[in-house]
Design goal:
Keywords: Membrane, Transmembrane, Transmembrane helix. It is built from four helices and no strands. By secondary structure, it is an all-alpha fold. It has one domain.
């Protein structure tokens, strides 16, 4: 009984997974809108280069968010993509150390 009450307290609609998805969607929107606004706030010279990073990153974030909250194959795809991103990040640590940075 107490465990059920704790689950209900985590979300006003009684579904903590839906609440988490809403929070992550709002977080992503705030993150990528903030980065887009930084183009004007910081007077970036290479706007097209920045957008060529920002747009695919936002698309990947929201695809992974969508895929993660689906059941079955989509969730497995999300885990696979996140694992690949993690492994590439780890490899970049050693690559940048060996080559002396960027």
């Amino acid at each position: 009984m107490i465990r059920g009450l704790d689950m209900m307290a985590a979300s006003p609609n009684g579904n903590p997974e839906k609440s988490l998805k809403n929070v992550m969607t709002l977080y992503g929107a705030a993150l990528f809108l903030g980065l887009a606004i930084s183009i004007y706030a910081h007077h970036l010279e290479d706007v097209s280069g920045f957008l060529s990073f920002l747009v695919p990153a936002a698309a990947l974030y929201f695809f992974l968010l969508f895929a993660f909250f689906k059941k079955g194959t989509f969730r497995k795809i999300a885990y696979g993509v996140m694992a690949v991103i993690g492994l590439i990040s780890l490899a970049m640590i050693f690559y940048l150390e060996i080559t002396g940075g960027h």
